[in-house]
Amino acid sequence: MIPIHPRIEKLQPYVAGSRPEEGVRALKLNQNENRHPLSPKVEAAIRTLSPEMLQEYPDARCDRLREALSSVHGVPVSSILCGNGSSELITLLFRTFLREGDTVAVPDPTFALYANVADIAGVHVRAVPTDANFHMEPLALAAAAPQAVILANPNAPTGVCVTADRIEKLLQTYNGLVVIDEAYIDFAPDGTSVLGLTERYDHLLVLRTFSKAYSLSGARVGFAAGNKRLIDAMLKGRETFSVNGFAQLVAEAAVTDQAHKNEMVGRILSTRERFAASLQAAGWTVWPSTTNFMLVSPPPGSLVAQKVYEGLLARHIYVRYFAAPRLDDKLRISVGTDEDMDLLLDALLRIERGGDAAMNR
Ligand SMILES: *Cc1c(COP(=O)(O)O)cnc(C)c1O
């Protein structure tokens, strides 16, 4: 028998939000995708896909995409590294900067992928509890780990963010690697991002993705920004051709249309507030969100969150339920279009009233 690596053998695999079966019409609000239309520039780029793009190797360094990112974000090209989603960059940063037996600190709760990647790398995870409102003081992470801290800002699945100046305080006193995952930054208030600090602090790495605000989850593109020394090290250890040519093309088109992205973000934020108000009017608890998803709890005395989740699933409506402490009485709902949220609200109210045919099967 071929031995399986013990770390893999005992690994708790990362569980992504589930996908509907092929051919089933479903309302997917469980992976924080953007359900609004793509930029016309992206649509145009899709039409230029040529056979050569499949026959030839892509540009391993994603130069055109990095140049586009550089001019939009004001960060040098040499400080940017693109990857197959930010998920790949999370794996790569562990491989590049952390050794077996090292410790990283993360808030609790947070994106479950960090602990999964750490387990694979043999790195210990210190999960530092957030307060009753899921708020995290970045400095509290510093005390928990000498080698690195990873903070999703805004955090998932809570939707809470901290201001950039609080992260800067951490950078000023902590010498380990500071990774700030800005997957949801486009939805957050001004003064949240630390992308602009990457040139000033050589131990800061910022992660961004095209999966959320840009509506390109399927293209699999993300990027890391940081000091050139960090980026060069990651370049050395990376998977050479991880971002395919088609993905590079659509991502480049997406960044060059900031106006479209901003417009879609604006729609999502107004839908979020409208939906939050409707839910609250129906007695639900809604945690304040700075992202394109919301953490919500059914009214006391009605069905528990897991039952609501199951009732929605029976109607082919997908939201996220986490069977974890502090989260198992809540649902995480991605903000879709106004029509999506009306459908969802209608389903929620029917399920609560118990008059739902799908529930009585
Ligand atoms: C969705 C998400 C990502 C993005 O992952 P990709 O691999 O780029 O699709 C990264 N971090 C967090 C916290 C997320 O929620």
From TrEMBL:
<keyword id="KW-0032">Aminotransferase</keyword>
<dbReference type="GO" id="GO:0000105">
    <property type="term" value="P:L-histidine biosynthetic process"/>
</dbReference>
<dbReference type="Pfam" id="PF00155">
    <property type="entry name" value="Aminotran_1_2"/>
</dbReference>
<dbReference type="InterPro" id="IPR001917">
    <property type="entry name" value="Aminotrans_II_pyridoxalP_BS"/>
</dbReference>
<dbReference type="InterPro" id="IPR004839">
    <property type="entry name" value="Aminotransferase_I/II_large"/>
</dbReference>
<dbReference type="InterPro" id="IPR015424">
    <property type="entry name" value="PyrdxlP-dep_Trfase"/>
</dbReference>
<feature type="modified residue" description="N6-(pyridoxal phosphate)lysine">
    <location>
        <position position="212"/>
    </location>
</feature>
<comment type="similarity">
    <text>Belongs to the class-II pyridoxal-phosphate-dependent aminotransferase family. Histidinol-phosphate aminotransferase subfamily.</text>
</comment>
<keyword id="KW-0808">Transferase</keyword>
<comment type="pathway">
    <text>Amino-acid biosynthesis; L-histidine biosynthesis; L-histidine from 5-phospho-alpha-D-ribose 1-diphosphate: step 7/9.</text>
</comment>
<feature type="domain" description="Aminotransferase class I/classII large">
    <location>
        <begin position="27"/>
        <end position="348"/>
    </location>
</feature>
<protein>
    <recommendedName>
        <fullName>Histidinol-phosphate aminotransferase</fullName>
        <ecNumber>2.6.1.9</ecNumber>
    </recommendedName>
</protein>
<dbReference type="InterPro" id="IPR050106">
    <property type="entry name" value="HistidinolP_aminotransfase"/>
</dbReference>
<comment type="subunit">
    <text>Homodimer.</text>
</comment>
<keyword id="KW-0663">Pyridoxal phosphate</keyword>
<dbReference type="InterPro" id="IPR015422">
    <property type="entry name" value="PyrdxlP-dep_Trfase_small"/>
</dbReference>
<keyword id="KW-0028">Amino-acid biosynthesis</keyword>
<keyword id="KW-0368">Histidine biosynthesis</keyword>
<dbReference type="InterPro" id="IPR015421">
    <property type="entry name" value="PyrdxlP-dep_Trfase_major"/>
</dbReference>
<dbReference type="GO" id="GO:0004400">
    <property type="term" value="F:histidinol-phosphate transaminase activity"/>
</dbReference>
<dbReference type="GO" id="GO:0030170">
    <property type="term" value="F:pyridoxal phosphate binding"/>
</dbReference>
<dbReference type="InterPro" id="IPR005861">
    <property type="entry name" value="HisP_aminotrans"/>
</dbReference>
